[in-house]
Structure prediction request, 467 residues.
Amino acid sequence: MKKYALVFIISLFSASISAQYRPWTSAQQPLKEIEALKKQIVKPNFRKKDYLITDFGAIGDGKTKNTEAFKKAIEKCNAEGGGRVVVPKGIFLTGAIYLKSNVNLYVSKESTILFSQDSNDYPIVFTRWEGMECMNYSSLIYAYEEENIAVTGEGTLDGNADLDNWWFWCGATKYGYNESRPGRQNPARAKLHEYMAQRKPARERIFGDGYYLRPNFVQPYRCKNFWMADVLVKNSPMWNLNPVLCENVLIERVKVISHGPNNDGFDPEACKNVWIKDSYFDTGDDCIAIKSGRDEDGRDIGRPAENHIIENCEMKDGHGGVVIGSEIAGGAKNIYATGNIMDSKNLERALRIKTSSSRGGIIENVFFYNTKVGAYKEAAVRFNMHYEKPGNYIPTIRNIWVENLTVEKGGKYAVFSDAYESSPVTDFTMVNAKMNGIEIPYKVDYLKNVTLKNVSVNGKPLTELKP
Prediction:
């Protein structure tokens, strides 16, 4: 009886896994899923009470450090039930800002929050750095396990990073590094990888001064109901907008202009229910890069990037338009990009899925719809399972649907795939795609269940993708 019971349980488990994966058969399916998801993602409401930071001693002269004034205003607002902490006209220099529940940091038009270039103004907190958990400098705006928080207004968040501050820590000469300057992240980065592989407890992976791991700009960590709207974000030390393990994230009408090293625009990590819309990216790295953790940390935590909408955004400059990976060990599912435009001499790929066998995980249900692309360098659609070092965790990429894609003056390939023979990219559909200016129609290796309908490259029908 035990043997038969075990077989029955295994059969039920297998059936359950099979039932979970259903490739789309028409665009109407993901379009309906998008509409249902939009109803779940709502911005938080705040008590109608304003707390002006100048009432707490803040001076907007661009020179006086206002860290304590921000702290006092946010704590009082939180303690009294929430509301808006208002930054009036002026330039307000500060260290790290910690957002508390029910607080909307409102950056008024003609106001700037200018962040300090002194690393001592950023306390050590529990954070993620390139998808790995550790103790490191606070992000410039940080929150941990808070609810109903926001950064809004038509003002500016200036990270104040440049070739002499923060950026040169990446170790690249083009960003100001030279051997006569103290500061290079490479040894600490290698040490963090080592700690992760050893599964050293995250709170014992302590960095900060002397390690040169740059902070990200905005990082709510394990938060619920996070909203950003209308602000300009510029000059980040590293990644710009980086919610981690958050649920219900709404980003709208935000402008990111930041051309430093690793200056990705929007990097949601292991988040659920995310909607970014009507936003603008002019960045030094990927415009949008969806993540779920690197290697052991990503797999052990096991939280996928789930239910993301990227809608009506402009990717003015950046290496990738919509990217999934590479820190994607927790997997990703239900990623919908619709109505976006991108065109840049630095754009390498419009849609890129990058992972490796040191990551593993399943990336599935990616919908890339109504996309207009000007120029790019490498590929309109790029699958890469061999990004960075190999390992023992073969990734899965499946159910990728591209429809209504136009490319005016593309690059080397229309479609470029680099997968494992044991794990081919499965259920790839491309419908109504018109791509011009392509050097070579495609370069692919392992694809399974490919559907091409009304696809043309340089005016000629593309009817198959063969190795």
Q: What stands out?
A: The radius of gyration is 23 Å.
